């Protein structure tokens, strides 16, 4: 019997605390597999953020540091800047963490061309704290803090983080992918690999924005949630590569 | 012949494997595992094509997928 | 190297480098900006790294990252910027991460001004951040002492795995004095086997975290923290006294203002008053016992601060009513003059002199 | 021996570096010294001052309430510091820039046309050195040699060519109080 | 309206609305998120505004803006988020801006956990931010008391032009009890003629600032602040006592844990021990004199906190060595049980009972 | 005699603390004139930030609030949201304030479509604190914290704030202008007027980025400084309108 | 009279709202009550529990160390709380879900096939009401009327149609302990 | 005829008005004002065209500019 698929060695052998059907788990697997395949698990340091993935330091089979809410890019910067160059440093952040409280940190990490990889899990909501509005929540989306649905007049417009960061010269590789079916999951894996390779080649800042689900707080079952990603999120957050060019000081 | 193995105790019964199995051979068992979930179970391993769609969509990396070695004589 | 003439802010930087700190993450703010600029110039020369963070919040979290990767690392700021670091300091303490954090305090509250002040005493000694933690706080009063205490700060940080605060004020940061960069003896090299540097060669994954969702486990963590603090309280108290041998009145003051007090004490002594100075150098742990040990002989304690009265509480906690305590403070960046202190001491001394 | 000196003038007149020269020279001469600038909003335009203590014993407070000498380079500084000098102390001014009448008669006043002299020496920027020359000659707290050493240190390699004119300025200043 | 059954977090929200606060800027964090959600639902109904800020830092500065525009305004958070507000709170205090800030504290330091805790006591009472300032701190121990104290918080904030902190913990925020929304009597309406709302009709430009580059002027400002604090110390001390009439041993506890203490005291009283409870309601200003007034009769004071020991310092400052003080604390989110407190009290009481 | 030009009534009659030749003064005048001409001085509340313009509350003839470093957009949000709609609220922020410590606040004010006007003074340096590197400092620019000149590898790439914020749906009007000669000063005035009109018409977030000088910390005289703006800054920070479109929820 | 009740089960089994019904009914009946949830990570998947105190006098601590009654809806909760009940107290379980043997003999155990009964009544979601019926009948702390009033309040207008089946469940539960 | 008025005490001697005056009729005076700056002064008001370039570039709003009323007869 040939093994077609088995649990990645990049994941520790523990159950996660994620809700049934939450795609955080899929994204964990993709990161773990990539690090395993690149054979860099032993030289990787991951940074867990504050969100449902806060405990990811118990799941990844590599050194992990847990950062304050929103500050993972700063923590990753601190780690990356003081360790030998062969170390791989990544952050794993939710949309509340990265796009709300951590907006300053992510913009500046990108602008500095910080040679780290950011896995940005956009599920359009604050999962961990019970379903409040995120900067990425869609217009009309009902959340604990937008009970009537998000209104542009009072709650503003959702932020397309990938597009925004792509305007920065410091950002080298930025792609948005999704997890709503097998094909997209496989594409997501490719993007994540590309991002880590960007770092390995010392090309600077890389980020993969992964559209993800929160069945629990969306009030949908796992399958419906994937449909919601496809039908509601993808149109507002178009998939694709937003940046794939390293800035060369000499060029401009 | 076991083509897929489901680590039952890690399963959360989310049903995503069921939704994505082209062969429609997975279902939730009628019992609870130690975490109180109804775990996924395979109806007919023989129908499985080892496509791994279930495994790729499983958020909890619960499923392993195998494929019988191709008969070398046939292959050559 | 001999003596050199440098600004206090720069002395901190050079002393940190002497202590083997080659990493600095900071953000400009008066009156500590010279330290940032100095590190920007000097660290590349020693193959270290200076990085200007986008904010104080980011700087302290970069420190968190660098420290978790096992290096000696420093950041610095002044009062408003120091307030922004409180969450990060609480995280460092909780995650048992060593780091040295400099606060060159200025007039507050709010934006206040940029003149010297000691009004961040509560913040640095009682934990300006949330949760049960303390940080050792060292308060030099001369530039030469900065050289020693900066090195000490790194030693304590590594030895106990704790953030340590070096507290100065605008005057100390801005003034120049001759200093000599001598290495302190008790340098220790500590193997940071806990650092998250990649698992290569050292087995299973390491984690740095301050989270424990389980209350029983978090209490265990907290108890360990408190054990550590007990140890630090036992070992790391630093205090200086001046003419206390026969003193009947004691001035308690630290940092910048202790210098002014010393000059004033010299003058008042000339008039025959038996007066001395107790100068806490470690503000946490506080030299409670040292102060208490003088209680019997003292008729009066005068606490002098460049604040509305903060350390005075620690003096009261040391003395527990056994000696009357007065407080004299200036705020808003005003440094009391020798003259006014002389007057104050004489006034209080009237009840003391026989 | 102990001198508590305040130097004050507009920003850009070299007040800080004059103070630094004194402190450095003092240190080289084996004295205890301290240098404390006024800083802050004054940087922009307004007046700036620096306090320098040079002493045979340890410097307690680097803050100077009652200077033994003040060196004043503009009128606002004169107004502010004239009254602070200890009785018997010195006021040195750049007479080209300070023209207010002195109200004190318990001090020694030296009004030196430092800019004029400096310009005669070919570089108006050495006006400060002229006054420092007068200062060391008057107080005797520092030797000319230490000040020259300080100059060498402060100017560094790139500005070596400025040393002669600076020394000339120093000497002219010293002569002013002979 | 009668009694309703609500969560503590929601009670805070409704009580604020009752107090005329129609503006709320917040950021979610467990265990206070229900307050944010409640305001999101309720405020539009009263034509007010709820805005989810991008961070705690932003929320407190939105509060600064709204307050400077003259409205009653509130924000809330829990420990780590509260740390991030320190700079902003210092600014509010310095600029004399009224606001109510809620801290539903959780286990710390660092990320800690989300269980109830009282380990932010130092931070809220000694000024977690920089500079010489204090904020009045009110600590309810029942949901009904939340109704009163929330209104009081707004009254004090406006009357003295100061930020006021309402301190609870996860238990208080998460539990339900029947409450009745009664308006407190001492509601005052204050004309905020200082607010920056545009000069139309009221003459020359007004400014809100905490900056004073001049040290003498900043000291004047600071002196005025201290005058204000003196006034608050005189007028706004709140404390509750229970069975203290004949007590020979006093328990000092506040908030959540005071309830548990009360149950434990009832049990120990049954055994004949003369024990009572002093429950500070205002943590700043602290009821120093009230505690001191019992000293003569007491043989022992036991301070109970859900922390490693913070308020105990204020008790020691009140007592100044006149009565022996013991401390009992639990941390990490653990709430002591009635049983364990009974045991503690009995142990300490052994020396007390005749 | 006809008055061709006189000091705006939007400015109080005081000297400023700005260094000689610093264009902060010109920008102050433009804002003041605009408010005067729109006749809204009595209903305007300005927010002074922390930077050299911190004391601008002593210069503008309208109500002013002084905000913490970087937080002016949050303070302005607080003011704008609680006052009657006819009030005009603006922030006046430097590049350190807005683009460094205040990055989170400005992005979110823009994303929310906050109906305020932001005057963003980009002088490529921290003026007030003595000339440290700003996120907008140019590559190679020597500052107190980039003594060897800004290097992309360590200090990252300058941020083009206008371009970045223009990607946000919430932003209605964004233009970059300069102050390096009379014609550009007059254009800057127009842009500022347009921005305030955008607010008055309740169209949402408006920002004018004004390229400005810092003779003191650049080590150039005032005239050379204007040349430096023209020759060095304008090429990297192209002038022009980056956004002039109000997002209508219904449209998309 | 005072009942200290802990209700525990998997998240999603309605543990919190069962507690809320009791507290609300208690309040309506003029009693002092408190309701305190366990919260936090348990929300995700694991077990959840709620503590409800119903008392004739003021509630001191809403935390329950030694419950007088526990209502347990899964095995993990049974393992955790069986031992905590005061001697003489009650353990009520959903016998369809809890199948562990009881080690206590100083308490009253009521194992009710609540899911089975609920399904017979046509709605498996009213299993909780069956157990609450048993609880009030056994303890007498609350009247059926108050619980019905609480039901009316909690279900609100939209779910009025569910009232009959809930009441039926309540009554079946009450009958179980007759 | 005064076409421009320079409020001397507010001038910081930055010379921007000088740089931008097309008529080249402004210079710095040879004295210091109360703040220690050499203030701008106009050499020849008659050469001034009231173009206001100086005023628009003055960071300190020190300069006022006037234009003689056009002779109404000529204008109509
Ligand atoms: C300073 C601070 N503020 C707020 C919180 C509370 N908090 C925890 S997670 C979270 C949001 C998480 O949302 P997101 O980043 O989208 O992650 P998700 O749970 O959706 O994966 C918040 C606000 C905190 N822990 N610290
Ligand atoms: C929290 C905080 N951090 C730092 C400072 C110090 N600080 C004052 S102004 C300033 C930078 C100003 O630069 P910019 O915003 O570009 O304005 P400019 O002076 O150039 O006009 C800094 C870092 C402060 N006051 N508060
Ligand atoms: S709350 Fe949402 S994001 Fe968090 S684990 Fe559950 S489903 Fe996933
Ligand atoms: S491998 Fe393919 S066919 Fe086999 S069970 Fe999984 S999804 Fe179905
Ligand atoms: S996808 Fe995984 S967790 Fe979900 S039901 Fe299938 S095996 Fe279980
Ligand atoms: S320091 Fe620079 S920005 Fe500040 S006032 Fe002076 S020239 Fe202008
Ligand atoms: S108005 Fe024109 S011509 Fe007249 S002085 Fe000014 S710039 Fe020169
Ligand atoms: S531009 Fe203004 S400040 Fe500058 S020299 Fe001319 S008048 Fe004076
Ligand atoms: Mg999310
Ligand atoms: Mg700037």
From TrEMBL, chains A, F:
Residues 51-210 form the Thiamine pyrophosphate enzyme TPP-binding domain. CDD domains: TPP_OGFOR (cd03375). It comes from the Bacteria. PANTHER family: 2-OXOGLUTARATE OXIDOREDUCTASE SUBUNIT KORB-RELATED, SUBUNIT OF PYRUVATE:FLAVODOXIN OXIDOREDUCTASE. Keywords: Oxidoreductase. This is 2-oxoglutarate oxidoreductase. The keyword Lipoprotein does not apply.
UniProtKB/TrEMBL annotation, chains B, H:
It comes from the Bacteria. The keyword Cell membrane does not apply. The keyword Iron applies. Residues 2-31, 39-68 form the 4Fe-4S ferredoxin-type domain. Transmembrane segments: none annotated. InterPro entries: 4Fe4S_Fe-S-bd, 4Fe4S_Fe_S_CS. Keywords: Iron, Iron-sulfur, Metal-binding. Pfam families: Fer4_7. PANTHER family: FERREDOXIN SUBUNIT OF PYRUVATE:FLAVODOXIN OXIDOREDUCTASE, FERREDOXIN SUBUNIT OF PYRUVATE:FLAVODOXIN OXIDOREDUCTASE-RELATED. This is Ferredoxin family protein. It comes from Evansella tamaricis. The lineage of its organism: Bacteria, Bacillati, Bacillota, Bacilli, Bacillales.
TrEMBL record, chains C, E:
InterPro entries: 2-oxoacid_oxidoreductase, PFOR_II, Pyrv_Fd/Flavodoxin_OxRdtase_N. Residues 247-340 form the Pyruvate:ferredoxin oxidoreductase core domain. Keywords: Oxidoreductase. The keyword Magnesium does not apply. The keyword Chaperone does not apply. Pfam families: PFOR_II (PF17147), POR_N (PF01855). Residues 14-197 form the Pyruvate flavodoxin/ferredoxin oxidoreductase pyrimidine binding domain. It comes from the Bacteria. NCBIfam families: PRK07119.1 (NF005507). PANTHER family: SUBUNIT OF PYRUVATE:FLAVODOXIN OXIDOREDUCTASE, SUBUNIT OF PYRUVATE:FLAVODOXIN OXIDOREDUCTASE-RELATED. This is 3-methyl-2-oxobutanoate dehydrogenase subunit VorB.
TrEMBL record, chains D, G:
Residues 11-175 form the Pyruvate/ketoisovalerate oxidoreductase catalytic domain. InterPro entries: 2-oxoglutarate_synth_KorC, Pyrv/ketoisovalerate_OxRed_cat. It comes from the Bacteria. Transmembrane segments: none annotated. PANTHER family: 2-OXOGLUTARATE SYNTHASE SUBUNIT KORC. This is 2-oxoacid:acceptor oxidoreductase family protein. It comes from Evansella tamaricis. The lineage of its organism: Bacteria, Bacillati, Bacillota, Bacilli, Bacillales.
